[in-house]
Design a protein that fits this description.
With 238 residues, the chain is α/β, with parallel strands linked by helices. The chain contains eight helices and six strands, in the order βαβααββαβαβααα. It has one domain: Nucleotidyltransferase, domain 5, CATH 3.30.420.10. Helix content is 49%, strand content 16%. Helix 1 packs parallel to helix 4 and helix 7 crosses helix 8. It starts with 10 loop residues before the first strand and ends with a helix.
Length: 238
């Protein structure tokens, strides 16, 4: 794998309304393959958490009520979708072009979710099992045509030494985009409009598209070499 001298610079547009989203999707629909990614945050505000903590500290709650508030306080973005809210959906049409939809109202959220579950374009996701939990929770549907680059990568670089078989997106594409990760503190409702969060979301989908193209190129090379070898083996004896 060749390491570039400069990182890929991702450009992106954003949308916060269903009307603007429709205009961006008109461009996106021109492409046969798109790469997608969700950003997710805990739906509870800081004020709510403080209030629930006070209840836990100062009252004699029943066992059921205590478990109820504790589950909310301990929830993370990796927990059940009922504890979370979708904050962004990024869609890339190439390894350097993305569209970031800010899902801060039901109108644009429903519009994007309907698009993802109705379009016949091939969708590429990295670790789709995480994103699809949220997609299915909200719509009861999955995309028509999709691929998971993490599963594809795992089948190609599987190794008994787990350190040599890491398939995180940043581990696989970090040499192309740099260290674009941001602090987990930024994944809350208060930071969903921050420029660095939007950029992060844009790079996530663009990097997924880069990985998809890279895996396919490598597989084509392997197939080509295999075909040549099989041809030589077949013809050589005669």
């Amino acid at each position: 794998m060749n390491v570039p001298t400069t990182y890929i610079d991702v450009t992106y547009d954003t949308a916060r309304t269903a009307f603007t989203a429709q205009k961006l999707l008109d461009d996106i629909r021109k492409y046969p393959i798109i790469a997608c990614d969700f950003e997710v945050a805990i739906r509870y505000t800081k004020q709510q958490k403080e209030q629930w903590q006070l209840l836990l500290d100062s009252t004699n709650l029943s066992k059921v009520d205590r478990a109820f508030y504790e589950s909310k306080l301990q929830a993370t973005a990796l927990d059940h979708p009922s504890h979370c809210t979708l904050t962004h959906c990024s869609i890339a049409t190439s390894d350097n072009r993305s569209y970031v939809f800010i899902l801060d109202n039901s109108s644009i959220t429903n519009y994007i979710l309907n698009y993802l579950t109705s379009t016949t374009q091939k969708q590429v996701w990295h670790n789709a099992s995480y994103d699809f939990r949220h997609l299915y929770y909200h719509t009861g549907k999955f995309p028509y045509d999709f691929e998971d680059t993490q599963i594809l990568a795992k089948t190609l670089i599987n190794h008994v030494n787990t350190f040599k078989a890491k398939t995180g997106l940043k581990e696989l594409a970090g040499h192309m985009y740099g260290s674009w990760g941001i602090s987990s503190d930024n994944f809350d409702l208060e930071h969903m409009y921050d420029e660095h969060v939007l950029k992060y979301a844009a790079i996530d989908s663009a990097a997924t598209m880069w990985l998809w193209n890279y895996i396919n190129a490598e597989c084509d090379t392997i197939d080509s070499n295999l075909d040549k070898q099989l041809t030589l083996d077949w013809e050589a004896p005669y």
